[in-house]
Amino acid sequence: MKIALGVEYDGSAFHGWQFQGDVRSVQESLQQALSRVADHAVTVHCAGRTDCGVHATGQVVHFETDAARSERSWVLGGNVNLPADISIGWAQEVPDSFHARFSALGRRYRYLILNRRYRSAQWRNRAVWIHQPLDESRMHRAAQTLLGNHDFSSYRAMGCQAKHPNRTIHSLDVERVGELISIEVHANAFLHHMVRNIAGVLIAIGKGEQEESWTREVLELRDRTLGGVTAPPQGLYLTKVDYPAEFAIPDPPQLGF
Fold this sequence. Notes:
Layout: E1 2-9, H1 26-38, E2 45-46, E3 55-64, H2 71-81, E4 86-94, E5 106-115, E6 128-130, H3 136-143, E7 148-151, E8 166-177, E9 180-187, H4 194-207, H5 214-221, E10 236-242
Parallel strand pairs: 3-10, 5-6
Antiparallel strand pairs: 1-3, 1-4, 2-3, 5-9, 5-10, 7-8, 8-9
Helix pairs in contact: 1-2, 3-4
């Protein structure tokens, strides 16, 4: 049978999602835990591979197994065998046609910025600290030019292996709650470092270092070398993955900021 899971993790101490053998990864930790529950080796596939230091509140994964376990057993047994910085929230059997990555219709990310004069002990690995004042309204207005389908070559990593640079952004919102600024982006898919590169451009605009039109200017250059600074990873969260209704994939918990 094929089982899907909802997973959250603090990416601070991981070298990203993908198994790399000699360093700690989310995939390896999940596979070890679920293999113990299944009593056989398990290979886990995810909806979105996150980089070193990146977090998830709404990651979705799947694996195949011959082991007969209840959904409750996958959750409780998995969590017993997982480290404290990974947690399984739900499990359910899915049809053979389901694939955590290839069945996804869209993904949602959040980028968190702590905007105050002094650094934080509590938020040091959970948000990027910017001590200069940021104008979140200016950032939001600038972000709107990226809505729709575009060639995002200027907003992807130099080593991005995607077959083409076109992606469709459905929504891109910037808002402040106290000292925290959140960049929320929903798209059909993302390129490598795309959200962090968008965040880097918006931060420069929020500081007043660039005009609001810079988001469009960078987009039209189609050249990553002219695209601004990549924002640090610790502010980035994978918050939700969209699937066709037929799979009945649960929504992740809404935890606010």
